[in-house]
Design a protein that fits this description.
Elements lengths: L1 H32 L6 H8 L4 H6 L3 H10 L5 H4 L6 H15 L4 H9 L6 H18 L6 H22 L2 H4 L3 H16 L14
Helix pairs in contact: 1-2, 1-4, 1-7, 6-9, 6-11, 8-9, 9-11
C-alpha cells in the first residue's frame, strides 16, 4: 500500500515542482524583458519544461503572469486595521519601502509591462482590488473613490520614483520627519471636507 501511494504522490510532486519552475522563470523573464517581449517558449526553456505545460498548468501566458502578480504582497494588510490610524500606517509603509530599497521582480515586471494592451484589464483589476477599493471602503463622507485614488497616486508614485532615480537622499533624511510629512499628505488625500473622512474601525 505504501509503495503504491508513493508512486501516486511522486507525479504530483513532479507536477508541482515543474509548475513552480515555470512561475519562477516567468517572474524572472517578465522582470527582465517585460510581458510583450517574453514568449511561452522562452519561459519553458528557462524552466527546462515542455512548452505545452504552460497551457496545461496555466491556460495562457497572461494567466501565468496573473498568477505571478497574485503572489506579490500588497498594501492590503496596511489598509486593514484601525481606520483613524490609516494615514500614519500608509506613511510608515512608504518610509519602510524607501529604507529597505527592496525591488521585487514583479514590480520590475510591472514597470516594463504597463504599456501592454493585453495586460491592461488585468493590471486595472489588480490595482482596484489590491488598493483602490480597500482604501475607499475605509472612508466615510463624499467621494471616497476620488480620495482613495489620490492616496493611491502617492503610493504608486513613490514606488515609481524609487525604481527610476532611487531615493538615496530620502534614506539619509530624518525617518520620523518623513513619516510625519507623509502622514499629513495622506490625511489631506483621505480626509473629507467635513473632517470626518475615516470610517469606524469596524468598517469592512
Amino acid at each position: 500500500m505504501t509503495g503504491m501511494s508513493d508512486v501516486g504522490e511522486r507525479p504530483q510532486r513532479d507536477r508541482a515542482a515543474t509548475r513552480q519552475r515555470l512561475l519562477d522563470a516567468g517572474r524572472r523573464l517578465f522582470a527582465e524583458h517585460g510581458y510583450d517581449h517574453v514568449t511561452v517558449r522562452m519561459i519553458a526553456a528557462a524552466a527546462g519544461a515542455n512548452v505545452a505545460l504552460i497551457s496545461r498548468y496555466f491556460g495562457s501566458k497572461s494567466a501565468l503572469f496573473a498568477e505571478v502578480l497574485a503572489g506579490e504582497p500588497t498594501v492590503r494588510t496596511v489598509i486593514d486595521g484601525d481606520a483613524a490610524g490609516l494615514p500614519a500606517r500608509l506613511a510608515e509603509h512608504v518610509v519602510r519601502q524607501i529604507h529597505t530599497g527592496a525591488e521585487s521582480p514583479v514590480l520590475r515586471a510591472l514597470d516594463r509591462s504597463v504599456g501592454s494592451v493585453e495586460l491592461k484589464p488585468l493590471l486595472r483589476e489588480r490595482m482596484e482590488n489590491a488598493m483602490i477599493r480597500p482604501l475607499a471602503a475605509r472612508l466615510s463622507g463624499p467621494d471616497p473613490r476620488v480620495r482613495a485614488l489620490l492616496a493611491a497616486s502617492v503610493l504608486v508614485g513613490s514606488g515609481t520614483l524609487r525604481r527610476i532615480i532611487g531615493l538615496d537622499d530620502l534614506r539619509t533624511a530624518d525617518r520620523d520627519l518623513l513619516i510625519a510629512r507623509l502622514t499629513a499628505i495622506f490625511e489631506a488625500c483621505l480626509t473629507s471636507a467635513r473632517d470626518d473622512g475615516f470610517a469606524s474601525s469596524s468598517a469592512p
